[in-house]
């Protein structure tokens, strides 16, 4: 009996060692070129803050005012030479919809291509839209047929946010591919059926989570960086965006070319930015991706001094570095306000409030002013930080939630950082937007007191810490 048992133990030990070795490699392997960039500071040209807002009136009727995709469609409609689009959720999966955004975007692109046959359209997206290769996406198929270059991001090039699964996945299954003809299991995201490989791929929790658009605008370039997805079930969500022009738009194009390159479809002939940079003191803007967003967020929080105003509105707040910086800012006397989604709803399904309710309890215990978005099925999906000093303000908006997955070079993310005089129009509009969410009036209810969703349950506090540290979560 000894020898078989010893062989079994040795074999089991070898399997565990290989598993851990693969997990470590997936966690620390070199990043592809062009990830985690801090773009150069550029003059802030034609800069505008945009928002989609949802609220309820005194009769509990829901209202929505939208600007982001209307702006995107107008940008596409005037493009002559180039459209570069990167969108995470580009589908009609899950839940009821305020607008059929995925169809609207598809038709806007097809209409412009028909009107301008020489227009080059580049679309970068995430494999979640095909349930990781388990279904055919008819929108992407139509766009390909019309001549668009469609690039599905190769997520295997990224580091693992859930290494204990991605380690064995890379060894046993990742190289198998998938079958677009469906399968025998329900689609975890919507209608239809998919194979087991789609479910197994989903557990990696990797994503190209970016939401960007660049188009030519006469002799200039115009860009949009947003938290909003062209996803039907997301169409009622609250979101924010920044529109801008100039060389920063071409910095955004370069960041998308990097994704195309490591996804096996390098893009030739794209325009590149000049070396021109902004002077310190003028309104200026830069593109940030992945880990550079975290550095900018924490740097902005750390610069805030006594009497400065610091407003945070975000769908997920979990990153320990950001939380520590916020608590330290409060101690320094910064006038800090935090507005969070209650993590209550996800496309018709109820959530358990993790991580925001656990983080909210920690912040409130530290004395920080905090309110919840008063959601009614939709999500408070903004990702915004606004610092206003005596003279200069900093505004960071984009795709990145304030979590380890979004800020630690794991997901692909894009945000933009604006530094400008306190009275700059985009800063003023962002400040007005935050005030509308924070302060209710007689016929507009957008937020609610902390006590409404307070949750001090020990098990959920533990789950937040474990899920954030080990990647066993969807946030």
Q: How would you describe this protein?
A:
By secondary structure, the protein is an alpha+beta fold. It has two domains: 42-262, Endonuclease Chain A (Endonuclease, Chain A); 284-470, Endonuclease Chain A (Endonuclease, Chain A, 2-Layer Sandwich), CATH 3.30.870. Helices cover 33% and strands 23% of the residues. The protein has helices at 2-28, 68-77, 101-115, 138-145, 163-172, 196-202, 247-262, 291-303, 320-331, 356-365, 404-407, 425-438, 458-470; strands at 42-43, 45-56, 62-65, 82-87, 120-125, 149-152, 185-186, 193-194, 211-217, 220-226, 239-245, 284-289, 309-314, 335-340, 345-346, 349-350, 369-373, 383-388, 392-398, 414-421, 447-449. The strands form four sheets. A nine-stranded mixed beta sheet has the order 1-12-20-19-18-13-14-17-21, with helices on both faces. It has an eight-stranded mixed beta sheet with strand order 3-2-11-10-9-4-5-6, with helices on both faces. The chain has a two-stranded antiparallel ribbon with strand order 7-8. A hairpin with a 2-residue loop joins strand 9 and strand 10 (220-226). Helix 1 (2-28) packs across helix 5 (163-172), helix 2 runs parallel beside helix 3 and helix 8 (291-303) packs parallel to helix 9 (320-331). The longest helix has 27 residues, at 2-28. The mean pLDDT is 94.
